[in-house]
Amino acid sequence: MKLGVFMVLFGGRSLEEALDYVASQGLNAVEIGTGGNPGDKHCKPDELLDNETALKDFKKAVESRGLMISALSCHGNPLHPQKHLAQADHETFLKTVRLAEKLEVPVVNTFSGCPGDHEDAKYPNWPVAPWPNDFQEVLKWQWENKIIPYWSEAGKFASDHHVKIGLELHGGFSVHTPATLLRLREAAGEVIGANLDPSHMWWQGIDPVQAVQILGRAGAIHHFHAKDTTIDPINVNKYGLTDMQEYTKMLDRAWQFRTVGYGHDVKTWADIISALRLVGYDYVVSIEHEDGLMSVEEGFTKAVHNLRQVLIEEPLTEMWWV
Question: Which residue windows are coiled coil (predicted)?
Answer without folding.
Answer: none
